[in-house]
Design goal:
Elements (H helix, E strand, L loop, with lengths): L2 H29 L2 E3 L1 H31 L4 H9 L4 H35 L5 E8 L2 E6 L5 E8 L6 E6 L8 E8 L5 E3 L2
Antiparallel strand pairs: 1-5, 1-7, 2-6, 3-4, 4-5, 6-7
Helix pairs in contact: 1-4, 2-4
Length: about 190
């Protein structure tokens, strides 16, 4: 098997992994109509991010030198032709590892956030009726120009302010009334 063939197979595997990660990350945003955004962020940052960062800093360079370098046809060609100096090669390795660690952290954080939101609804949720005035309404535009809406209300069972991602415009002071569920992670959500 040639180096180019190995590289092609390796690229397809990585693209498949990216596709699966993208589907998992997007799932809660497509399947769950209303959900709390601050609590999953706090859970992910508190309990999972240190593990993610440490793991990528340890495994990232090992993966790069054992899996990426052997199939990097461009680097081998440059070495053979003598067009890359040792210094340029080291800078290239450092930059490649740095970018790989950054993007892996972003992808793993997105996976963690999405899996927290998704697994929240799996085990026997508690049904609650939310009748709370909207304390704050904000929206932002996505890259595609789609409006994303966020409201802040008082949690129906805890004495704290939460932020919900919603799918329509609201006014501050308007009463937000909805039958919702509290899942296993304690996150408020509704599928419809």
């Amino acid at each position: 098997m040639t180096v180019r063939t190995k590289m092609e197979k390796w690229k397809y595997k990585i693209l498949l992994i990216y596709l699966i990660c993208g589907i998992v990350i997007l799932y809660p945003f497509m399947a769950i109509k209303y959900f709390e955004t601050i609590t999953p962020n706090v859970i992910a940052l508190t309990y999972f991010t240190p593990f993610i960062v440490i793991t990528t800093f340890v495994i990232g360079p090992i993966f790069y030198f054992k899996k990426v370098i052997p199939v990097d046809h461009d680097l081998k060609r440059q070495k053979k032709a003598g067009t890359i100096s040792k210094r340029k090669e080291k800078v290239r390795h450092f930059f490649s590892i740095f970018m790989m660690i950054i993007w892996t952290n972003i992808i793993l954080y997105g996976l963690t956030f999405s899996l927290i939101v998704t697994t929240n609804m799996l085990l026997e949720p508690i049904v609650v009726q939310v009748n709370e005035p909207i304390l704050n309404y904000q929206y932002s535009l996505s890259k595609n120009g789609k409006k994303m809406h966020y409201i802040k209300i008082k949690h129906p069972t805890k004495n704290e302010i939460i932020e919900l991602r919603v799918y329509q415009d609201y006014n501050e002071g308007e009463l937000f009334t909805k039958k919702m569920k509290i899942g296993k992670w304690g996150i408020l959500y509704s599928e419809n």
